[in-house]
Amino acid sequence: MRAFIVLWASATLVFFITRLVPGDPAEAALGGPGSQASEEAVEAVRRQFGFDQPLVVQYGIAMLSLLRLDLGSSYALRQPVATILLDAVPGTLVLAVLALLVAWILAIGLTLAQSQGSRIAARIGDTLEIVASALPHFWLATILIAVFSTALSWFPPVSTGTPTGLVLPVVTLAVPIAGFLAQVMRGSLQEALDAPFATSALARGETRVGLRVRHALRHAALPALGLSAWAFGYLIGGAVVVETIFARPGLGRTLLSAITVRDIPVVTGVVLVSALVYVILTLVTDAVTRLVDPRTAVGGR
Amino acid sequence: MTMTAVDGRSVDPLRPPAPPTGRRRVGPGVVLSVGFAAFLALACFAPGLIAPQDPAAVAPLDAFSPPSFSHWFGTDESGRDVYTRVVHGAGSSLVIGFAATAIGLVTALLLGVLAVFGGRIGDAIVGRAVEVLFAFPALLSALLVILVLGPGPVAATIAVGLSTAPGYARIIRTSLLTVRSSGYVEAARLLGHGPARILVRTILPNALSPLLALATLGVGQAVVWASSLSFLGLGAQPPAPEWGAMLASARVYLTTAWWLTVFPGLMIVATTLSATAIGRALDARGRRAR
Prior knowledge:
The complex is a heterodimer.
Chain A: H1 2-19, H2 25-29, H3 39-49, H4 55-67, H5 81-113, H6 119-134, H7 137-151, H8 163-194, H9 196-203, H10 208-226, H11 228-245, H12 251-260, H13 264-292
Helix pairs in contact in A: 1-13, 5-8, 5-11, 5-13, 6-8, 7-8, 7-11, 8-10, 8-11, 10-13, 11-12, 11-13, 12-13
Chain B: E1 3-4, E2 10-11, H1 28-45, H2 47-50, H3 82-117, H4 119-134, H5 138-149, H6 153-180, H7 183-190, H8 195-208, H9 211-231, H10 243-250, H11 259-289
Antiparallel strand pairs in B: 1-2
Helix pairs in contact in B: 1-3, 1-11, 3-4, 3-6, 3-9, 3-11, 4-6, 5-6, 6-8, 6-9, 7-8, 9-10, 9-11, 10-11
């Protein structure tokens, strides 16, 4: 229910934001003022899209068609928005899921590596985390291309269907996120290792590695897990940059080209899809949190 | 090697326990960061002092020279000195970063005050609004603002600022709530001060001081986002010596002239790094003071 309200509010917000875009929407639908559309054509489009109706009516129509999952059709591509999105979503989803997975592996590895008590390891890990989270996607991507495509030619600079083409985009997206996750996790891992239950586990004969993997990591992961929905949003933003650089079809590139030509139905579609993903992810994160931490379960002690 | 003390806290035998009060030694990272920040400030206010050449001076014969003593960071496709352009670009990149953070903080402050002092209805409205805005990832809401305002450096600044506001708003709200229920606010009320005076003179200064550290971190992130927008062609446009725009035009020459990509990018990373280090140090100092 709450998720539905968030979605409805996002749709409303996007509707009114797109109405703020300067210029006649009917002309935009015909390709902008440069297209020299005839007065009759503009008039026809105005009637077709309902731009001659009062704003409230337009809003009502927009919301009703959303309920029917009708996203309208693109101004620029003359295709239903739903088709465009269905083509774009899988590419971005694969990219984002892999990046999140790699980021988690990197973050857990980094956190465990520096929890062994050595000050030098902690210093290096700390520096790595800060540097990783300070790297802008677009620069990291260009540097990775320069090193691994141009100089070493290990991976292609353009990400087409092949699995090797996925490596550089995934790494680009994963590294900054891993930095953020590791920063959050390290603090809570230390807290968990300082907690009385850690001492008692050691006293029961648990090994140091076992203590970290079986007991402390669970606590350390919780705050970072809460960040996952945020991280996914961050990945979608990063996808705009990464898909553009690696010439990879997906939501981000679709959004960027739609923004530059002011293709409002497509922009609305992409924003709603990402809001939907955010809402779903929040629900999933809550469920996983309950799984990892039984204390937060409803009706728990 | 870590030993575990009786109370369950790990103790490092090589490290003396931190003194409970007083100043702690400032780490080398923070010193470096403050130094870099000073360099940036100089680059903003008096770029001619550290880079006397003209950032727009074209020298076609010198095009694509690699880094050397006469051109520290090399030259670009028109023979312009990259070091000079990077230094002169600091101004526009940092102004965008600071202005965006300011826009984000002011918007968030208005939202926070409305939430805490607007009664139950105000809190509910702001709470829901922030929750909805969180469903819009930072770059996505920035792109929506650009859609309305059209591309350009001012639009990019406003876009980045507004997209950071929900995050700040959430923290400001919590901070305001804590301060409002504190003893000294109660004392000010008992002294007969009016609500407006209490808000401006007592609550805001106390609620905002923890934000200083956060805003410093925010400036670093804002520089990254704004340069990303410029890189995508939606912020500052290429002839301008802005870091993101420089990187956008450098992309074509990546295979032949790596220095065009490496140095402006390093400046962005160094800016964000020093903002992070300074922000963390401020945060740690703030925690000790509290």
